């Protein structure tokens, strides 16, 4: 999928006023997602996206280029934050409210789901806690097959009520 197509679909699905708002949403969502999932997985995601969409992910990966221990930690683990933290980061980056950020990030996930290999998206979704999975397309919002293995964030969403409310 070309970058213009990706941002155009996000703009339409999130009902954003213009292409610039869609680009901010894509950038904000992908940067925040790259912080939340393991760096190696983020790198695989970036490899399947157009260069303009991959750039925010690669910037996050590069920002974790500290000591060997820091690099290894981020390669294997993402930062830990829940839906509230995710929405707050997306809102700040996209210059929107948290409510708008949730709606816009959900639209971005829908478009990513159709733009990236299904197997990779399964792994991305498996690395997210239950409450962030609520943003996913309905077909993917169910628990991935390997989520029971204690993927990144497994169990940390329960304090917010998780998907069961």
UniProtKB/TrEMBL annotation:
Official protein name in the record: DUF2267 domain-containing protein
Segments of this protein annotated with the region Disordered: 1-22, 60-80, 144-165
Organism: Streptomyces botrytidirepellens
Basic and acidic residues bias: start-end ranges: 66-80
InterPro entries, per the entry: DUF2267, DUF2267_sf
Record lineage: Bacteria, Bacillati, Actinomycetota, Actinomycetes, Kitasatosporales
Origin: domain of life: Bacteria
């Amino acid at each position: 999928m070309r970058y213009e197509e990706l941002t155009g679909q996000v703009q339409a699905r999130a009902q954003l006023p213009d292409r610039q708002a869609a680009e901010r949403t894509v950038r904000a969502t992908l940067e925040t997602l790259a912080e939340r999932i393991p760096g190696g997985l983020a790198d695989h995601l970036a490899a399947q996206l157009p260069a303009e969409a991959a750039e925010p992910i690669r910037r996050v990966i590069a920002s974790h280029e500290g000591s060997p221990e820091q690099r290894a930690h981020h390669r294997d683990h993402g930062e830990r934050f829940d839906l509230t933290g995710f929405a707050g980061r997306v809102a700040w980056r996209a210059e929107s409210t948290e409510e708008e950020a949730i709606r816009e990030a959900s639209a971005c996930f829908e478009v990513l789901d159709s733009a990236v290999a299904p197997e990779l998206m399964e792994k991305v979704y498996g690395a997210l806690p239950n409450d962030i999975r609520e943003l996913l397309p309905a077909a993917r919002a169910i628990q991935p097959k390997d989520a029971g293995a204690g993927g990144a964030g497994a169990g940390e969403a329960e304090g917010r009520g998780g998907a069961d409310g």
